[in-house]
Amino acid sequence: MASDLFEAPDYYQIDDLLQEEHILVRNATRDWVKKEVSPIIEDYAQKAEFPKHLIKGLAEVGAFGPYIPEEYGGAGLDQISYGLMMQEIERGDSGVRSTCSVQSSLVMYPIFAYGSEDQRKKYLPKLASGEFLGAFGLTEPNHGSNPSGMTTHYKDMGDHYLLNGAKMWISNAPFADIAVVWAKNEEGRIHGIIVERGMEGFTTPETHNKWSLRASATGELVFDNVKVPKENVLPGRSGLGAPLSCLDSARYGIAWGALGAAMDCYDTALRYAKERIQFGKPIASFQLQQKKLAEMITEITKGQLLVWRLGVLKNEGRATTAQISMAKRNSVEIALKIAREARQILGGMGITGDYSIMRHMMNLESVVTYEGTHDIHLLITGADITGIPAFQ
Ligand code: TGC
Ligand code: FAD
């Protein structure tokens, strides 16, 4: 990719709403992304390889457990700092942000919120430092949008549990050291279980041939009579609400993150439009191109205000699942539209890896599907405003 000239749009002076710590965290992450992610990410995406060497740096900037208390190795930051971090990292690449979302919100969060003190002490510091990488197993081959139907299950064998089943589409699976896996007990109640790499019968085949999130590793988690120590079950909460509450946290990060991708596409397209001459004039002088750019900055600005307000509510413990869902859906939808329009502004150059836009666009095709599809999020809003769930 050509050198990273990114300048963040702030059309409504939203920086004025941020505290000094937010700006420091945001700028430190932005600098790190410019230095470490932008120069290499296109190559890794082209090779369909996760840049493992970034793990140490991600841990150092605090992207693994930004809001987990410092006593467990987290950064102890608030929700707006967490959001800004995700925005900057996804500005670099959605796949890198994915790794952080999974590690922080889908692995560290459930261990912090529902784990025993021993589990917290055993796993959280290693996850925060990047010594361990985690995965989150909810989706199954036959249960994606409806995880309540999951068939992965475990049996009480006296001194241990026996786990059987399979999870599919799992980020980080091929090299994760541990996985937080959601499975049913003999009564059909869902519990979280920490499964460790090396347990007999536990395999993690990689999913190949993705056109999206190519710099993020995806795979399966397969459990064939895996003996799991009883102390690996998360004791604090059971039922579908436990994994769904983790999704709240990850979806919140995506709401900020997808805006980062949108900002990068807009910024790239604006610069290109001012430089590219056709018919003797910069293409930015043509009304049709201005319309695209004007709509992009309008949607980005609305999105920025939405996630900032959501961050305030989240800091106060008042953000609802439906509010988070709306923000995730909105940010990803506008980011995808912006990526598609931005790509057109770059003409043929837009399809090359010399620019980040096509990579963002392809990545966002996963982001619009994972953590709840666009349709599921529409239904979550629908259920919230009407009081009538229309999922089935
Ligand atoms: P429903 O009846 O609505 O709820 C079941 C129980 O859960 C409770 N609950 C929640 N609790 C805490 N936090 C939340 N956000 C909660 N939402 C619901 C609810 O009160 C109920 O409790 P109880 O005590 O009455 O049993 O469940 P449902 O089966 O009707 O499903 C609703 C639906 C469709 C919205 C839900 O299943 C859903 O969100 N589906 C989408 C699945 C999804 O998002 N999967 C994501 C997998 S992970 C992933 O994609 C990671 S990508 C990683 C990366 O970033 O790379
Ligand atoms: P389906 O549920 O089969 O949906 C197919 C289509 O039907 C969608 O358009 C959907 O909106 C629509 N649909 C479904 N139900 C309804 C309904 N009631 N009303 C209207 N329309 C409906 N999962 C994890 O657990 N952990 C991970 O780390 C993880 N990482 C992922 C990484 C990638 C790259 C991808 C692509 C997915 C990942 N997922 C992960 C899985 C992801 O969460 C699921 O793909 C997603 O929840 C959708 O499930 P599905 O693919 O089975 O689609």
Would you spell out the secondary-structure blueprint of this structure?
Layout: H1 20-47, H2 54-61, H3 79-92, H4 94-114, H5 117-129, E1 134-137, E2 153-156, E3 160-171, E4 178-184, E5 190-196, E6 202-203, E7 218-229, H6 241-275, E8 277-278, E9 281-282, H7 287-315, H8 321-345, H9 357-367, H10 374-386
Parallel strand pairs: 1-4
Antiparallel strand pairs: 2-3, 3-7, 4-5, 6-7, 8-9
Helix pairs in contact: 1-3, 3-4, 3-6, 4-5, 4-6, 6-7, 6-8, 6-9, 7-8, 8-9, 8-10
The structure holds 3-thiaglutaryl-CoA and flavin-adenine dinucleotide.
Short description:
The protein has 392 residues and is α+β, with helices and mostly antiparallel strands. It has helices at residues 20-47, 54-61, 79-92, 94-114, 117-129, 241-275, 287-315, 321-345, 357-367, 374-386, and strands at residues 134-137, 153-156, 160-171, 178-184, 190-196, 202-203, 218-229, 277-278, 281-282. The chain binds 3-thiaglutaryl-CoA and flavin-adenine dinucleotide.
What does this structure look like?
By secondary structure, the protein is an alpha+beta fold. The chain has 3 domains: 14-129, Orthogonal Bundle (Butyryl-Coa Dehydrogenase, subunit A, domain 1), CATH 1.10.540.10; 134-232, Beta Barrel (Butyryl-CoA Dehydrogenase, subunit A, domain 2); 241-386, Butyryl-CoA Dehydrogenase, subunit A, domain 3 (Up-down Bundle), CATH 1.20.140.10. The protein is built from 10 helices and 9 strands. The strands form 3 sheets. Strands 2-3-7-6 form a 4-stranded antiparallel sheet, covered by helices on one side. The structure holds 3-thiaglutaryl-CoA and flavin-adenine dinucleotide. 3-thiaglutaryl-CoA (TGC) binds at residues 98, 101-102, 136, 138-139, 145-148, 171, 239-241, 244-245, 247-248, 250, 321, 370-372, 376, 380, 391.
